[in-house]
Amino acid sequence: MVDTEPLWGVATYELSERLGRRLSAEKREETVGGSFANTLRVCAEWAGLSVAQLDYNHHCSWMFGRMAELFTGSLVTNPGVREVLASLKQAGVPMLVTTNTERVLADRCIDTVGRAFFVGSVTGDEVDNPKPAPDMYLKAASMVGQDPADCLVFEDSWTGMSAAAAAGCAVLGLAETVPDGVHRFDPERLVGADAADVASWFADARRTRDAR
Predict the structure, then answer these.
(1) What is the pLDDT of residues 27-61, one digit of tens each?
(2) Coil, strand, or helix at residue 68?
(3) How far from the centroid of its chain's Cα atoms is residue 9's Cα?
(4) Which of 32, 123, 147, 184 can pair with 103 through a Cys bridge, CB separation 3.0 to 4.6 Å?
(5) Burial environment of residue 115 by CB neighbours within 10 A (0 to 12, 13 to 18, 19 or more)
(6) How far apart are CA 88 and CA 104, in angstroms?
(7) pLDDT at 200
(8) CA 138 vs CA 135, 178, 179, 189: distances in Å
């Protein structure tokens, strides 16, 4: 809904430099869509360190502080998102946000999009195992009393798509490459779309999932 990944990239590269060695572009890809714990592990190992050698809370505090700085004045909702959400809300479809971002930062993104669209949200610090584990999607489905198999997920990272698929959801993957069972989806199709279009996309995603 909000493209924060370039901002996470800035902070992740800076974190790796603080630990002694700037990540390569390939290693940076291993952090996309993941939790901070995963990002710190990747950066530490790249610098020849172990997470056990580091002050986790110190680096976590730095990362979230830096992201708060980068978020200021930079958060913009992607084209078509608000209109689709408004149509779904009018149709009575319950919607939730699920993100590996921790609550302190996630709320800023949710507010940018429009908190009133959603009946709830689940963040990375509110489950035992963040994405790519399915916990977040299982919790979100339970919050609205639904079977995950009857839930549609929009995801743009491999980590998120894998998590949603593992939970048994129908998944639209907003990426060039998607995991097995995930229906590849062009995000430009969101522009001008409404709840009826989403219902059609849901059917496509379920067929792709069930054919896995």
Answers:
(1) 999 998 888 999 999 999 999 999 999 999 999 99
(2) helix
(3) 14
(4) 123
(5) exposed
(6) 27
(7) 98
(8) 5, 20, 19, 27
10 Å Cβ neighbour count for 1? 20
Residue type, 25: A
**Do β-strands 183-184 and 120-123 pair in parallel, antiparallel, or remain unpaired?**
unpaired
What is the separation, in whole angstroms, between the first and last Cα of the chain? 27
Q: Which long-range contacts (CB under 8 A, 24 or more apart) does 119-124 make?
A: 119/94, 119/95, 119/143, 119/144, 120/96, 120/144, 121/96, 121/97, 122/96, 122/97, 122/98, 123/99, 124/35, 124/36, 124/99, 124/100
Residue written as token pair 């919790």 = 139
Contact 143, 162 (CB under 8 A): no
